[in-house]
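Check out one such.
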Amino acid sequence: MSASRLQIKAPIRAVLVANRGEIAVRIIRACRELGIRAIAVHSAADAGAFWTRMADDARDIGPAAAAQSYLNIEAIVAAAGAAGADAVHPGYGLLSESPIFAQAVRDAGLRFIGPSPSAIAIMADKVTARKAATDAGLPVLPGTESTVESIAEGLKAAPAIGWPIAVKASFGGGGRGMRVAQSESDLEAAMEQASREAAAAFGRAEIYLERYLPKPRHIEVQILADSRGGVIHLGDRDCSVQRRHQKLLEEAPAPALPDGLRQRIADASVRLARSVGYESAGTVEFLADIANDAFYFLEMNTRLQVEHGITELVTGVDIVREQIAIAAGELLSLHQQDVVVRGHAIQARIAAEDAWDGFRPSPGRIEALRLPQGPGVRLDFGVEAHDEIPGHYDSMFGKIQALAATRDEARLRLGVALDDFMVAGVPTTASYLRILLDQPSFAAVTHDTGSLEREWRPDPAKRPTPTLAAVTAAPSAPAYSERRIAAPWGGRLIEVAVFGRVDNGAAAAASGNARPNRELAGAVIGGPDVTAPMDASVNAIPVKLGDTVAKGAPLVILEAMKMEVIVSAQRDGLVSVIHVAPGDAVKIGATLLTLSEA
């Protein structure tokens, strides 16, 4: 990294961060290092959030619903203009892979810190991305050449693809909007579920079909490209520890990857980026069949990746800073031969989910928070103690990363960090991930993308229930709590401490029972009322009044933290009352519908 990279002055002087949570914090910190003014945005649900307190300015962009705030292009572009920004960084997720947003930013006379709208358009649509990969000579799995509009169309295409088949969202990523159909009998349900989840997560319901590779490794390559045709890669990562096709643990470099295969995957990534005239940071993802020395293009993420931090740890390259420099018109600060991978890094995604209860989304208030420390430990968090984790957005609120000389040392170091990490108020995935690190196949690198759901059996007896007193190391829960908010004063935001009596939620946290442990089926066995297992919104109701349903039948489809959960019947019955409608917001324990005796 050249020293001049710290001296970026013009033409970027103020950046609006069009995102939220830990990635907004990460980008704001990079701006501060560069002497660039950072402008945060927030919805009504995120008013006073951690990243808004860190920024030089913060702008309200709308109601809690993402569609009316973080996905509201007009509101975000208007906020950038009003705040005096001359560039916009989209982070990841939300609008980061929207060519319409990138073009709107440019049309407003601002710099978009990311690739061109045309490059995003090619890669954001997974169908056109497959074609671009094929044109660049990359191997792809058999699949449809266009989106699939009906079950009849899907069944017609299936024989040429071969079973099992992955039904995927054409727009979006992160494992959202993906289902696997093993045969013709479950293709229709997989298509409906994938389309519905894609619409909820990305605002686009289009889907396509692709051959599902049963036991691959998930390998990805980080690339950087400037506006003059310079393209390099920063090595690879392995993201094979997944549930519901969503990543839980990531590591760099990819372990136990043969050198020849590693080089071919890296070369293919650079070749694809060059072929589409790519600019900025991006990630090319593959499924690797290591036993057969084969790999297949999966997708290209035209944005900063959630797991970019572990690549930064092993290469020493600040990827966000490089993005800003490229957007400012600078050439890459290093050549391929300058990139050296040293050591091994592993990342754990910390989400407000009850991993011991089907990964149930669990929004709520963080009553206390204790973060780990130590050499080689990096923390990327979007919250502080007493902050609220809303149910409207993604459940991940932080990441813990560990760097060491070897993979085994990094695995042990991350395990210690996860042991030290404690939260009261909401359940998190931390304790579950701690146990995954010790799975024999993970330690031996014999796992694949399906190992967790197919083979691993973490012991529920090891599930911790941290109390407020334990996390704060206090003898008892305090009578009053402190919350810090951002308040307007003299044309800017200042931090204000607000004190109040601990509410029932905090008292529950102090007793070690921050949230009830409910089954996702959503009803007391034998009882007539079917209740919500979490705070959520109603996505769909696949039954109607008077329907006779059997045990296990889907009754209500909920969506919380961008995750779809099907609430099903725990007994046979007749739908006698429906208490909710699609679009309704419900609290945990709310009655959704009533089943009477059939």
